[in-house]
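hey can u check if this looks right to u? its 276 residues, i copy pasted from the old doc so theres a chance i mangled smth
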Amino acid sequence: MFTTLIDFDSLHDAYENPDWLIFDTRYDLADKDAGKRAYLQEHIPSAIYVDLHDDLSRPPATNKGRHPLPSVETMNVLFSELGIHSGSQVIIYDNSSGAFAARLWWMLRHMQHEAVAVLDGGWQAWLAASGPTDSNNEIRSESTFNNQAIKQDVIDIDQVQNFDLIIDSREPVRYRGESEPMDKAAGHIPGAINRFWKDNLLENGQFKEKSLLIEEFEKMLGNTQSEEAVFYCGSGVTACHNLLAAAYAGLDLPKLYAGSWSEWSSNPENPVATGH
């Protein structure tokens, strides 16, 4: 069972297994249809397209961020539509080093489905290794998925400042408030520190070695247990990349503030910090 990352060879050996489900989550924040167009042109055989906006941010939602987290009931419906069941090994990939794939990975883990992993290096790694592709628009085959969520791993806007360690996953210029291309205010939640999600990666877009990740995370966490740390980002998507990296390194899963900066900054009464 693969529960965090999977490499090319392992996926290539098993991608035709009927108990394995592969999902393509390619997406472009600047062009919401780009991922689906790319999928229809070429994708890993049998992969089903899953859209960040239409699938992974469905209403009713638990928060008011830009990509709001669907409710438990909505996630059960979605995963049933996608054909996921208790015996499914789920594999997810994108072309953004896992930035979007990690969102679906976290959602399934949140709903207590353990057999879910992200393809390390994503679509680029598959192509670089001459993996087979096709262009069929795979049809979703429904199943019954009816799990309970792990309630303690996601927090809301009223809880976030109750935690001693809050980590902002956005790029440093947005964290410091020097640039804000998407949301209503520039800066970060007061007291938050910064770990850019891309710090989990090597130059080739694959994840760093476990030993290096655990060293970096333990230094950042200090005396805080990983499950008591809270991660957020712009809209609750790339924060999941940090959660995936933590799990891959062997740490207990930290918490996610799903509404993230897009929800926090939408209320002018919420305090905003800038700089380091």
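The mean pLDDT is 96.
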